[in-house]
Amino acid sequence: QVHLVESGGGLVQPGGSLRLSCAASENIFNFNTMGWYRQSPGKERELVATITVGGTTNYADFAEGRFTISRDNADTVYLQMGSLKPEDTAVYYCNARRLSRAYWGQGTQVTVSS
Q1: Do the Cβ atoms of 77 and 8 come closer than 8 Å?
Q2: I want to staple 49 with a disulfide (CB 3.0 to 4.6 A). Which of 65, 69, 87, 88 is the partner?
Q3: How far is CA 64 from the centre of its chain?
Q4: Residue 65: CB partners within 8 Å, gap ≥ 6?
């Protein structure tokens, strides 16, 4: 059973920064891709950023230049978010993919508001 646990969410003012962490229950290099998604009320879950086992990163247009996905050499993936906007308010989910299986964390709330 794969477990993903997100942390680091919270309330931040517009223009501020947050770093989210995703701790996996096993080595993240066992997965083909790790990523972050988000979901706002009334909207579908959308891709934020992904990183492959080989280190290739991919970002949604809204995240490009403001967000950075990274990882350690063991079990944690990070999402550094900067220049945050109110429209970035959402629940952010960690995702891990291995072959045809996808695993999700429980999510962490990010609220951008003054």
Answers
A1: no
A2: 69
A3: 13
A4: none
**Rounded distance between C-alpha atoms, residue 82 and residue 89, angstroms:** 13
- What pLDDT does 52 receive? 97
Structure tokens at 65: 């230049």
pLDDT digits 0-9 by tens, 6-35: 999 999 999 999 999 999 999 999 999 999
Query: Which positions of the chain have pLDDT values less than 50?
Result: none
User: Which are the contacts of 75, defined by CB distance < 8 A and separation ≥ 6?
Assistant: 23, 24, 25, 26, 27, 28
User: Within 10 A of 62 (CB to CB), how many other CB atoms are there?
Assistant: 14
